[in-house]
Write a structure and sequence with these properties.
The protein is an all-alpha fold and about 375 residues long. The chain contains 17 helices and three strands. The chain has two domains: about 210 residues, Citrate Synthase, domain 1 (Orthogonal Bundle), CATH 1.10.580.10; about 100 residues, Orthogonal Bundle (Cytochrome p450-Terp, domain 2). It has a three-stranded antiparallel β-sheet. Helix 3 runs parallel beside helix 17, helix 6 packs across helix 7 and helix 9 packs antiparallel against helix 14. The chain is globular and about 70 Å long. The structure holds acetyl coenzyme *A.
Length: about 375
């Protein structure tokens, strides 16, 4: 029998080729189509990155202007989708809402030759924020919000629909950077799920719906919510350190730390940490950021572990006034770009994804009829 510690979870297994991203080459580093995440986060907008992931190259200014316009025109929710969203309970998890909304849209705007994979990728990118916030406002205050509003970017659109007014520039840029960081990450669990579903020649919506399901778990996208739940338990760094030491003593998992591929650092964490700090200062926060820094320091000291993207994203989102259950849905809003690129790539060079297993069960044995067992 193979050693599950070594082979479990397909760790270290090369499961295919991609031209979309590199993750953790020599333990660190992340690139999207050859551009480093540091350059993209400092100099690009999320729409440029989305365009590059979906179409393969960075847009020119006129391509970007036209792409922004296209996305703006795709923000309106079809009436039957609004009806579906209105039926979902107030206490549903927003990830379940997006999963259901995506699946429902697949019955309303089916994939066809004239409504092809590119059109669907752009539609989902433009529509996910409205899908989430239409359901949220309707179920929390009975308000049917207009989602086809004239906000300049996806980040601004999300924040404006959430808060009912345009967000400050600092908040919009922080959100924009966060979407860039979450956009793509090679063969992670949700992307691999999308590719596996796409490899059966299922439709685009089925692949994305499956991806949303895989992203929800706390070992993957759900970690940003779990990290916030941890951070906000504490009023002081000292309290946080004491509780964390106890958690480590009990060998508990600390959400927002560690990574399957990165061994020294998650390069996205350094970027989002800077934004979390800026937002903390702007909010005159004296608790959340200092508590987060202490948790990071203790994890480094005690376990030699580093924060992943989810850890400081949690506090950044808190400073943007985003409810915790919307943290993982924001990951969806960004990652639809990477998922789409991978579905295109899988389809372009498709072979059914169907691995084999080491059988470790009973040897072949005679069947015993029910009355004789
Ligand atoms: N807290 C405490 N201990 C940890 C953590 C953690 N966050 N992560 C790993 N460890 C420990 C494990 O318990 C294990 O210890 P052991 O050897 O004594 O059994 C050792 O480190 C190795 O961990 P594995 O579970 O084998 O690492 P794996 O590669 O399977 O898991 C994972 C990676 C799932 C990300 C893990 O680090 C984890 O559960 N982290 C918390 C969840 C999280 O933050 N997920 C977000 C991932 S990034 C993203 O989606 C943006």
């Amino acid at each position: 029998m193979s050693d599950p510690k070594k082979t479990g979870g397909l760790a270290g297994i090369v499961a295919g080729e991609t031209t979309i991203a590199t993750v953790g080459k020599e333990g660190v580093g992340l690139t999207y189509r050859g551009y480093t995440i540091e350059d993209l986060a400092a100099q690009a907008t999320f729409e440029e990155v989305a365009y590059m992931l979906i179409y393969g190259e960075l847009p020119t200014q006129s391509q970007l202007d036209s792409y922004r316009h296209t996305l703006k025109c795709l923000r309106g929710l079809p009436a039957p989708l609004k009806t579906v969203l209105e039926q979902l309970p107030r206490d549903a998890h927003p990830m379940d809402v997006l999963r259901t909304g995506c699946s429902a849209l697949g019955t309303l705007e089916r994939e066809t030759k004239s409504h092809d994979q590119l059109a669907i990728a752009n539609r989902l990118l433009a529509l996910f924020p409205g899908m989430l916030l239409y359901w949220y406002h309707f179920t929390h205050s009975g308000k049917r919000i207009e989602t086809a509003i004239d906000a300049p970017s996806i980040a601004a659109h999300f924040l404006q629909m959430l808060h009912g007014k345009p967000a400050p520039e600092l908040h919009v840029r922080a959100m924009d950077v966060s979407l860039i960081l979450y956009a793509e990450h090679e063969f992670n669990a949700s992307t691999f799920t999308c590719r596996t579903i796409a490899s059966t020649m299922a439709d685009f919506y089925s692949a994305v719906t499956g991806g949303i399901g895989a992203l929800q778990g706390p070992l993957h996208g759900g970690a940003n919510e779990a990290a916030m739940e941890l951070i906000e338990q504490f009023q002081t760094p000292e309290e946080a350190e004491k509780a964390l030491m106890q958690m480590l003593h009990e060998k508990k998992l600390v959400m927002g730390f560690g990574h399957r591929v990165y061994k020294k650092a998650d390069p996205r964490s350094d970027v989002i940490k800077v934004w979390s700090k800026k937002l903390s200062e702007a909010a005159s926060d004296k608790v959340i950021y200092p508590v987060s820094e202490r948790l990071e320091a203790v994890m480094r000291r005690e376990k030699g572990m580093f924060p992943n993207l989810d850890f400081y994203s949690a506090s950044a989102y808190r400073f943007l006034g985003i409810p915790t259950p919307m943290f993982t849905p924001l990951f969806v809003i960004a990652r639809i770009t990477g998922w789409s690129a991978h579905i295109f790539e899988q389809r372009a060079h498709n072979r059914l994804i169907r691995p084999t297993a080491d059988y470790v069960g009973h040897a072949t044995r005679p069947f015993v009829p029910i009355g004789k067992r």
